[in-house]
Specification:
The protein is α+β, with helices and mostly antiparallel strands. The protein has two domains: 4-92, no CATH class; 95-198, Aspartate Aminotransferase, domain 1, CATH 3.90.1150. Helices cover 36% and strands 15% of the residues. The strands form two sheets. Strands 4-5-7-6 form a four-stranded antiparallel sheet. α4 packs parallel to α6. The protein is elongated. The chain starts with a strand and ends with a helix. The model has no long low-confidence stretch (mean pLDDT 91). It binds pyridoxal-5'-phosphate. Residues 6, 8-9, 31, 33, 43 line the site of pyridoxal-5'-phosphate.
């Protein structure tokens, strides 16, 4: 029985492109539209040739007698080129520099949380949780916090101007900010909004 691994969001780290196969998995699927930053509709399969050929038989190609299950999920040629380009960029990227940049952006947010009563924060660099596999700013509201829940705060951020998507959970008192899609200067903007929201409610 082949083992097929759904590793959609397991990039980065780049080592994962080959790690799971080395561990003995028969075929791995990665999303294009997550850590690879390729077009959203794309993805890649890596693994045993016969399994990949079986998947190909179900793809959208005209090159077969009958329409296949993959036909309604057809992706454009431009997206395929985009995926291959994104993969080349990803494999050749300076992953350490990128990690350091994410760490610095998360640190900006963590630093801004100092001196806010009932709030603590740290940069989390563990495996996948919470958020993507990158240094992530994790903010904890303590037991004596009397303000809105983390979920209410994330909703407030989504409805703000500009809308900002931060994360919350799994505990009701935990917020997190993933830096992977932030441009320079945006961590400061988020930090400022957080300071405003978190220091106002809790006199
Ligand atoms: C995101 C995700 C998917 C879906 O991937 P798409 O590329 O959006 O189709 C599937 N499985 C897991 C574990 C995911 O994280």
């Amino acid at each position: 029985m082949p083992v097929i691994l759904d590793a959609a969001s397991e990039l980065p780290p780049v080592e994962n492109l080959t790690k799971f196969i080395r561990m003995g998995v028969d075929m791995v699927a990665f999303s294009g539209g997550k850590g690879l930053r390729a077009p959203q509709s794309t993805g890649i399969l890596i693994g045993r040739k016969d399994l990949m050929e079986a998947a190909y038989l179900n793809a959208f190609s005209f090159n077969k007698p009958k329409a296949s299950i993959g036909r309604p999920m057809k992706i454009a040629k431009e997206e395929i080129v985009g995926l291959i380009t994104a993969l080349e960029i990803f494999v050749n990227a300076d992953h350490e520099a990128e990690w350091a940049d994410w760490r610095a952006k998360s640190q900006v947010i963590v630093d801004a949380m100092q001196n806010i009563p009932h709030v603590s924060a740290h940069v989390y660099e563990g495996p996948v949780y919470p958020g993507p596999n990158a240094p992530t700013a994790v903010i904890t509201l303590d037991d004596t916090w009397t303000g809105p829940t983390a979920a209410e705060i994330t909703e407030q951020f989504r409805n703000g101007d500009p809308p900002i998507y931060i994360g919350d959970g799994p505990a009701t008192n935990v917020l997190w900010v993933a830096p992977v899609a932030l441009k320079d200067g945006e961590a400061e903007l988020i930090a400022k909004r957080l300071v405003g929201v978190l220091s106002l409610v809790n006199g």
